[in-house]
């Protein structure tokens, strides 16, 4: 590992993680491809939706299903999400069920307000996050890049926020760099870019801006070679973090000589 990253763990709700990459688990060509991608990328967490599971009567998962044993076998912390929830109560109920099923207080809070853009419900997201925080959840809320919304999420107790770069699954990369960079400048909590990244260069860019981690699903799962893209994104996240920590130079408005001219012979300037 790059020595600059060796002592630079990601810290969320007091827990530390060696990786700054999170991966979704949906839409891969096969469980085997998912497992290979995870092995190469070594993410800190894997997101999983309760809706993909079959809950047993009396609680727990139906372990005859193949997905849950696969998650256990990969030995990566699971981040349940409330994907597909459209009302506050639906998100709360799904989160509570996920805590019982996955036996974790971690939750990625998704509360969808628009079916076309899959934009978060900005009017109810804060209230949902507040109730979950009060119930002891470690909430990672999926949000837009709106500064006021993200600040309100922090105000109600979210110790990290997950703003989008672009709508889910579009792969457009950061469509509003100004908003994202403003978030990074104004908020002191960890910020995880979630949704809209399509290329490793997108991930590298937001990490260069000082974002703490990225979460990917479609960009890896739907690639021609998901395993190769998982590795490429992992490398890009590390490169971007190294650049941020190393203090990459700022763009200049005019050319600057890379070799000093002071003291060189006069004929060099003729």
Radius of gyration: 21 Å
Structural category is alpha/beta
Mean pLDDT: 88
Quickly give the CATH architecture.
Answer: Alpha-Beta Barrel
The biggest sheet amounts to: 5 strands, parallel
Taken together, the total number of domains comes to 1
Q: Low-confidence spans: pLDDT under 50, at least 5 residues?
A: 52-64
Account of the protein in words:
This protein has 270 residues and is of the alpha/beta class. It has one domain (23-247): TIM Barrel, CATH 3.20.20. The protein is 36% helix and 14% strand. Helix 1 (31-41) links the parallel strand 3 and strand 4. Mean pLDDT is 88; it is low at 52-64.
Topology:
Blueprint: E1 10-12, E2 15-17, E3 21-24, H1 31-41, E4 45-49, H2 67-74, E5 78-81, H3 88-102, E6 106-109, H4 125-134, E7 138-143, H5 147-155, E8 162-163, H6 177-186, E9 192-194, H7 200-208, E10 213-216, H8 218-221, H9 226-246
Helix pairs in contact: 1-9, 3-4, 7-9
Outline:
This protein has 270 residues and is of the alpha/beta class.
What descriptive keywords fit this protein?
270 residues, alpha/beta, 5-stranded parallel beta sheet, 9 helices, 36% helix, globular
